[in-house]
Design goal:
It is built from 23 helices and seven strands. It is mainly α and 468 residues long. Strands 2-4-3 form a three-stranded mixed beta sheet. Helix 13 crosses helix 15. The N and C termini lie far apart (125 Å).
Amino acid sequence: VDFTPRAKLCACDSCYNFVMADRWVIWMKDELRNHYQLESVPYSIFRVPVALRSVNPQAFTPKTVAIGPFHSALRWNAENTAFTEMERTKVLAAKAVAYDMKNESFGVLVEEIVNDEKLVRSYYDGGLELEDLNTEQLAYMVALDAAFVVAILHSSFNDPAGVQRIESSFPELQSRFAPVFSRRFSLPVRKSVLIDFLLLENQIPLFVLRKLIQMDSRCKSQEEAEGRLESYVALMAHHVLPFTKSHHNIARGIQGSAGCGKHLLDCLYRIITHQDKTSEQTVAIDFNPVAPPSATQLYNAGVKFKGHSRSLMEISFERYQLTIPKIHVGDDTETIFRNLVAYESQLEGKVNILSYLHFMNFLINTPQDVTLLVNEGIITHSIGNEKHVAQVWNELTINTVCAFSSQYSEVAKATKHYLDIKIHGLMAEFVRQYFSRPWLVLSLISGIVLLVMTFLTMLYTILVYKKG
């Protein structure tokens, strides 16, 4: 059968659709003739699934800088002056990094990436972006982006105007990019750049960053390069993560993450969930979980809330107390969570972020639930009122599968069972009604004492009457 599109057709929709169908069949036949090698190693940098992107496309699109091949159109579009200006800044970063390299040649890094081209491409989910880039184009793009990322992180690490320094075992090294960083990057731009570094479609392989750091003439060993990269990632985590994690907990979470991490977003995922090489095995997943009660319902039943600054997976319900992670909800919280959810969707047997988001979605049904969690020290926010915060939480789980890890599933069942026992609610109401205010307690005690005294007086009178 000849599927070649016919030369002369009218302009009606049916003829146009026929031509397009012909072309689609030709394309499909060509694709079926090609011999594709099945991937033995799953990619880790990929396009966000349409179902997740459709809810909020802006959460997955870089605002300030394009990193990697997926958003390369932004860097070449002359109308996007902010992105083209950032490309010029990348060149300055590459020159600054090259000056400190052992042979002062940026081309050495490009050659290393050319040699590792197959490995670099294996990190990405194919697509036209990579097919359209030849070896040289891909190598220069990744090398330039790597130099920019390292220069930004290094300058942020040594910036005296930073929010707070992260402790490190290696000495402070002066960055030749620092003058450019301080002059061209205001605080809002710095924050925007760090957020762009965390977007799923805006990633480059972490081993390239590690290799670039190791090429620094001031880096004495591979271990020092590893430690410096861990410190950079820890600094970024401290600045952008919505969880109120202390420096000690970030340091504990980062140990090994830079060594086994695939890219920056993967490192932050491991920090949040405390995942390393020893904890990559899959765990039981409950795809039909019990819905836990809302925060207000639990409070009315006498449940106490306690926040912590440890792993996202540490949640418990013991002795009428629900212990969950503390979190700060800001302008970038939605973007960070949406990219973490999109990345986790490709990880086999992992629902850590999804479990937390769905659990919080059940806890927060109304602005009153947010107010309660704010008063209990679980949530802080800087995005307006409680109604907006509740809306953010309720929209984060749209177009996702409701699933709980085994730990979250057990806590959900325990809280639901606790609420089903009506006596808990009655006792809590009684305590709040009569023991929440000191003067009510004193009045109750006085009433009880008066009642006992009246009874004793009556009893004494009866006994005296009988003796008489």
